[in-house]
Amino acid sequence: MSDRPLNDYETRILANVRDHGCHVVSVFDSEDDAKSFVYSVGFWESVGQPEVIILGLPAQMGAFAVNETYRQCKAGLQLADGQLIEGLLDGYDVTCMARAVDRQHLIPDYLNSALWYHNFRTGQPLDAVYQLVWTYEGRWPWDEAAPVELLEDQPLLYSGKFH
User: Fold this and answer.
1) What Cα–Cα distance (Å) separates residue 78 from each residue in 32, 43, 81, 98, 109?
2) What is the 3-state secondary structure (H, E, C) of the chain?
3) How many CB atoms sit inside 10 A of residue 146's CB?
Protein backbone atom coordinates (compact mmCIF):
# COMPACT_ATOMS: atom_id res chain seq x y z
CA MET A 1 0.00 0.00 0.00
CA SER A 2 1.14 3.49 -0.78
CA ASP A 3 1.25 6.30 1.74
CA ARG A 4 0.15 8.82 -0.87
CA PRO A 5 -3.44 10.06 -0.79
CA LEU A 6 -5.88 8.56 -3.27
CA ASN A 7 -6.58 10.59 -6.38
CA ASP A 8 -10.13 11.40 -7.52
CA TYR A 9 -10.25 8.49 -9.96
CA GLU A 10 -9.16 5.96 -7.35
CA THR A 11 -11.71 7.37 -4.89
CA ARG A 12 -14.42 6.97 -7.56
CA ILE A 13 -13.42 3.33 -8.15
CA LEU A 14 -13.69 2.58 -4.43
CA ALA A 15 -17.10 4.30 -4.24
CA ASN A 16 -18.48 2.49 -7.29
CA VAL A 17 -17.44 -0.93 -6.00
CA ARG A 18 -18.90 -0.11 -2.58
CA ASP A 19 -22.15 1.38 -3.93
CA HIS A 20 -22.73 -0.64 -7.12
CA GLY A 21 -20.69 -3.82 -6.71
CA CYS A 22 -18.21 -2.95 -9.44
CA HIS A 23 -16.56 -0.21 -11.39
CA VAL A 24 -16.58 -0.44 -15.20
CA VAL A 25 -13.60 0.88 -17.15
CA SER A 26 -14.03 1.69 -20.85
CA VAL A 27 -10.88 2.11 -22.91
CA PHE A 28 -11.94 3.24 -26.32
CA ASP A 29 -10.51 4.32 -29.60
CA SER A 30 -12.88 6.90 -31.07
CA GLU A 31 -11.81 5.96 -34.59
CA ASP A 32 -11.84 2.17 -34.31
CA ASP A 33 -14.20 0.17 -32.07
CA ALA A 34 -12.04 -2.90 -32.71
CA LYS A 35 -9.34 -1.35 -30.53
CA SER A 36 -11.79 -0.61 -27.71
CA PHE A 37 -12.27 -2.74 -24.61
CA VAL A 38 -14.13 -2.69 -21.32
CA TYR A 39 -13.32 -4.40 -18.04
CA SER A 40 -14.58 -4.76 -14.49
CA VAL A 41 -13.07 -3.73 -11.19
CA GLY A 42 -14.27 -5.31 -7.97
CA PHE A 43 -15.98 -8.55 -9.08
CA TRP A 44 -13.75 -10.69 -6.87
CA GLU A 45 -14.81 -8.65 -3.85
CA SER A 46 -18.53 -8.15 -4.54
CA VAL A 47 -19.54 -11.45 -6.22
CA GLY A 48 -16.56 -13.70 -5.49
CA GLN A 49 -15.68 -13.99 -9.19
CA PRO A 50 -12.65 -12.98 -11.26
CA GLU A 51 -12.74 -9.70 -13.14
CA VAL A 52 -13.94 -9.76 -16.75
CA ILE A 53 -12.78 -8.02 -19.92
CA ILE A 54 -14.47 -7.77 -23.33
CA LEU A 55 -12.70 -6.48 -26.41
CA GLY A 56 -13.62 -5.13 -29.83
CA LEU A 57 -17.04 -3.61 -29.13
CA PRO A 58 -18.28 -0.04 -28.85
CA ALA A 59 -17.81 1.23 -25.29
CA GLN A 60 -21.52 1.32 -24.43
CA MET A 61 -22.06 -2.28 -25.62
CA GLY A 62 -18.98 -3.47 -23.75
CA ALA A 63 -20.11 -1.71 -20.56
CA PHE A 64 -23.53 -3.35 -20.86
CA ALA A 65 -21.83 -6.77 -21.21
CA VAL A 66 -19.71 -6.22 -18.08
CA ASN A 67 -22.68 -4.96 -16.05
CA GLU A 68 -24.87 -7.83 -17.23
CA THR A 69 -22.15 -10.32 -16.31
CA TYR A 70 -22.07 -8.75 -12.84
CA ARG A 71 -25.87 -9.01 -12.59
CA GLN A 72 -25.80 -12.68 -13.64
CA CYS A 73 -22.96 -13.47 -11.20
CA LYS A 74 -24.87 -11.76 -8.42
CA ALA A 75 -27.84 -14.01 -9.32
CA GLY A 76 -25.65 -17.13 -9.03
CA LEU A 77 -23.70 -17.54 -12.30
CA GLN A 78 -20.33 -19.15 -11.60
CA LEU A 79 -17.76 -18.16 -14.21
CA ALA A 80 -15.49 -20.92 -15.47
CA ASP A 81 -13.25 -21.36 -18.48
CA GLY A 82 -15.57 -22.29 -21.36
CA GLN A 83 -18.73 -21.09 -19.57
CA LEU A 84 -21.33 -20.01 -22.16
CA ILE A 85 -23.24 -16.86 -21.25
CA GLU A 86 -26.32 -15.49 -22.98
CA GLY A 87 -27.76 -11.99 -22.95
CA LEU A 88 -24.55 -9.99 -22.66
CA LEU A 89 -24.92 -8.01 -25.88
CA ASP A 90 -28.06 -5.94 -25.52
CA GLY A 91 -30.35 -6.37 -28.50
CA TYR A 92 -28.29 -9.12 -30.14
CA ASP A 93 -28.80 -12.87 -30.05
CA VAL A 94 -25.12 -13.59 -29.50
CA THR A 95 -23.49 -16.18 -27.29
CA CYS A 96 -20.44 -15.24 -25.27
CA MET A 97 -17.92 -17.53 -23.62
CA ALA A 98 -15.75 -16.85 -20.58
CA ARG A 99 -12.11 -17.71 -21.23
CA ALA A 100 -9.41 -17.65 -18.54
CA VAL A 101 -6.92 -14.92 -19.38
CA ASP A 102 -3.30 -16.09 -19.38
CA ARG A 103 -1.18 -14.49 -16.66
CA GLN A 104 1.10 -12.83 -19.23
CA HIS A 105 -1.89 -10.65 -20.24
CA LEU A 106 -2.69 -9.50 -16.69
CA ILE A 107 -0.92 -6.23 -17.45
CA PRO A 108 -1.68 -2.51 -17.16
CA ASP A 109 -2.22 -2.24 -20.93
CA TYR A 110 -5.45 -4.20 -20.46
CA LEU A 111 -6.35 -4.04 -16.77
CA ASN A 112 -4.65 -1.08 -15.12
CA SER A 113 -7.42 -0.08 -12.69
CA ALA A 114 -8.29 -3.69 -11.79
CA LEU A 115 -4.63 -4.40 -11.04
CA TRP A 116 -4.41 -1.29 -8.86
CA TYR A 117 -7.65 -2.04 -7.01
CA HIS A 118 -6.82 -5.65 -6.25
CA ASN A 119 -3.37 -4.73 -4.97
CA PHE A 120 -4.75 -1.79 -2.96
CA ARG A 121 -7.42 -3.94 -1.28
CA THR A 122 -5.41 -7.15 -0.76
CA GLY A 123 -1.73 -6.29 -1.09
CA GLN A 124 -1.55 -9.09 -3.70
CA PRO A 125 -1.36 -9.05 -7.50
CA LEU A 126 -4.51 -9.77 -9.49
CA ASP A 127 -4.31 -13.41 -10.57
CA ALA A 128 -7.57 -14.23 -12.38
CA VAL A 129 -9.57 -12.56 -15.16
CA TYR A 130 -11.98 -13.94 -17.74
CA GLN A 131 -12.18 -12.63 -21.28
CA LEU A 132 -15.76 -12.52 -22.53
CA VAL A 133 -15.43 -13.76 -26.10
CA TRP A 134 -18.34 -13.16 -28.48
CA THR A 135 -19.46 -14.90 -31.62
CA TYR A 136 -20.16 -13.38 -35.00
CA GLU A 137 -22.73 -15.15 -37.16
CA GLY A 138 -22.36 -18.15 -34.84
CA ARG A 139 -18.59 -18.37 -35.25
CA TRP A 140 -15.93 -18.10 -32.55
CA PRO A 141 -12.70 -16.21 -33.31
CA TRP A 142 -10.78 -19.53 -33.32
CA ASP A 143 -13.10 -21.20 -35.87
CA GLU A 144 -11.45 -21.79 -39.21
CA ALA A 145 -14.43 -20.28 -41.06
CA ALA A 146 -14.49 -17.15 -38.88
CA PRO A 147 -13.75 -13.88 -40.65
CA VAL A 148 -10.22 -12.65 -39.90
CA GLU A 149 -11.69 -9.40 -38.52
CA LEU A 150 -13.31 -11.34 -35.68
CA LEU A 151 -9.92 -12.32 -34.30
CA GLU A 152 -8.52 -8.85 -34.97
CA ASP A 153 -11.41 -7.32 -32.98
CA GLN A 154 -10.87 -9.51 -29.94
CA PRO A 155 -7.28 -10.64 -29.55
CA LEU A 156 -6.91 -13.92 -27.70
CA LEU A 157 -5.78 -13.18 -24.15
CA TYR A 158 -6.12 -16.90 -23.39
CA SER A 159 -4.50 -20.06 -24.72
CA GLY A 160 -5.95 -21.95 -27.63
CA LYS A 161 -9.31 -23.06 -28.81
CA PHE A 162 -12.17 -24.34 -26.76
CA HIS A 163 -14.09 -27.34 -28.06
Assistant:
1) 32, 12, 10, 10, 26
2) CCCCCCCHHHHHHHHHHHHHCCEEEEECCCCCHHHCEEEEECHHHHCCCCEEEEECCCHHHHHHHHHHHHHHHHCCCCCCCCCEECCCCCCCCCCEEEEECCHHHCCHHHHHHHHHHHHHHHCCCCCCEEEEEECECCECCCCCCCCHHHHHHCCCCCCCCCC
3) 16
Which candidate, 90, 126, 133, 94, places its Cα nearest to that of 108?
A: 126
Domain boundaries, the chain: 25-153
Contact assessment for residue 119 and residue 126, using Cβ atoms and an 8 Å cutoff: yes
Predicted TM-score (pTM) of the model is: 0.92
Structure confidence by residue, pLDDT tens digits, 49-106: 999 999 999 889 999 999 999 999 999 999 999 999 999 998 888 999 999 999 999 9
Distance CA 62, CA 79 (A): 18
